[in-house]
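Friendly challenge for the regulars: who can give me the structure tokens for this chain first? No prize, just bragging rights.
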Amino acid sequence: MPKLFVERDYVDQELAKLRREMSDLKAELLSKLDEQFGNQNPNWNDPMPSKRQLEEEVGISISGSEQSIPVEGSGKDKKGASALVSEEPGDEKDPSEQIVCFDRKSAWSIPLVLSWSHVTDSIFACLLLLLNASMQILFIVILLSPEFLGEDFSEQLESAKEWRRSFAHDYLYVDLAEKSLATKVCDEDGSLIFSTAQVALVGEINSYLALSKFGEEAFQLPSFQPGVLLSVLCILLWNICVFKELRSIWYVLKGILLGSAWSKARLSQSNSVQELWQLSWQRGFVMSCVCLGRICVACALLISGCIWLGHTTSITELMLNSVALESVLHVDEFIFSALVPTNLQQKIQILQPVKIKKSRRSPRLENVVLFSVLSAALVLPYLLILAPLRETMLQVKYELCGGQQQFAMGFKDGIVREFATQPAESNITANRYIERAVQEKVFPEDFPVKLAAPAVEPDISRMRSMLNQEYVDWKREYAECPPDSDGSSMADFLAAAAFEVGHTGNRSCEALKTYCSDSDNFDFDTSMRLYSTAATWLRFACPRACGCTDPNSSPVFRTPRHGCRRSCIQQRYGFSMFSGSPSFGRLPSFPAACKDTPPGRAWRHFWGNAAFMSAAHLNSAVAYESESFRSLVGAAMEVGCPILTVAPTDYGGNLVCRGTIYNLPLAWWCPETCGCASSGNAERDRFCFGYDYCPMHVLETDTNAAWEFIRKYDILKILMNPELIPYSL
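First reply, four minutes later:
Bragging rights claimed.
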């Protein structure tokens, strides 16, 4: 709104200045007249001469407060210019009075100038007055409507709880960097295509309350909260704008009801003619009703504006919303400047101030009221709107990002599986093979040395089908155990393994075989889960270099699940089901006799890695770190197979002799201790195959009997598919 009233001190100063100027001008004029006519007429300074005599001698016409002063010229053709000298009583400042000005740029002042002499203008002005009121009322209705305010922020609390328990830890949304959806959202990851609304919500809360993404500061309110502070300032600014409107309305009411305007108001017109008109009681009543309506509209705007600004959680929108609200108060000014007829505009703009009597108690009471209003504008919005909003925001963020984030779960057939994911600060994304492959394909000129070698698929359906299978089934056409890759037939697996371990030189099986079972390759994450993707790819591409065919190599991860093909494991028995293989048709027989082998490199590698991995996989971190477990491992490395009589099972209850999906059966190294020749079945014990996980050994004199035994118990089915061994995991 434009400024409706001039400050009283300013008005008093200007009036005093004007009086001094008029007094000086009057004294100067009288002095000049005295010099010009005093010598010619000795009675000039005599106050007793009549008015007519002075008019004849001086040549000026004195009428009330107007003195017409002639302008000298030649001959008798002298034209006069008139100057007004105010000599009205009451021009001196009265300290007991207060001057109030009407609003001269507002459509709300239209009732003051309506008249029957300009009926058309008056009717149109009344319509504009109704338009002004209607627009502001409609703005209020819209501001208070639930469609405009939106849902209350407290409703985000239930949505956050539902999202956290339904999607945040679903294993389907774990990305290539092995980060859960909850971790990505709380990190405000802009690359997400899921849960973008939650990302925006977390970003708004962090910006509003100045919270960090992770750590202890993520849920602790800092002393400086930019969103809360800016909301307080914007709401205070809006309150001041409305208080200014209310104060101007109050002054108008005082001017109408208590001031001289009730008896008369003065409209200054051209040609120095003063027109006096009476402010009738009807006009005063209408203007009073308009002022009461303005008070209702202003109060409604005050409340609706505070609610709207308090519900604005985006700090970038707070300032824009406060400016937009202020423009609603300018509607009457816009209508006045754009639509009010010129005749009425001029009448409103020349409305003279009115005087009202001052009250002795008014200044003190005014100070108390203004201080109370300012305090309420600061305290009430904070206590009623902003403080509850802040607490709700903190609760919503806790539901979205509180507690443990580094895990994902899946559910199938009544069983819940848990997978430990990476934290947000993990830099595993900097070394992802598929991301490097995408970058090399998108910007080939930026990567002169190509580290990725993706296999090109001609059909998307075939690609989807293969990606849904175990990678060991990708190349089923290799029914035999292929020779180690030279870098071409298995280039994709070799490239992935080399990239994983950071080897950018010669990508061949010979150059990379040191990574097949190196314990340093195993990556311990926060849940003590142990794995090596590089070694898995190498065992698939380089089965011989990685020991998949060697009966004396480490049993750790030499299983089909972890890269060693079934056809390669068969060669540990010295036979093959592939017709083109030299071992085709041979009798399956483990090369070692049915005797326990002393502790060797393979035995020590198992106890140094696989046992720890098994305990970690079963979340037995306490047992893994216990002194008793370490003592057991140390004894196993020294004693050898007899340790299995003391500790026949691992911490998951699995028979160590049987093996797991992570390692081959230890019965292949300890057939005597594992009872392969003492199961009680003489026919099976004869061939050291008392149990399905035992290493079958056939003497040269028992060839025919061995074939009969194989056909009777369908031994080839087990030897062709080692995964048929009933692991108890």
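Confidence is low (pLDDT under 50) at residues 44-92, 260-278, 519-530, 723-729. Residues 177 and 429 are 5 Å apart (CA to CA). Your move, everyone else.
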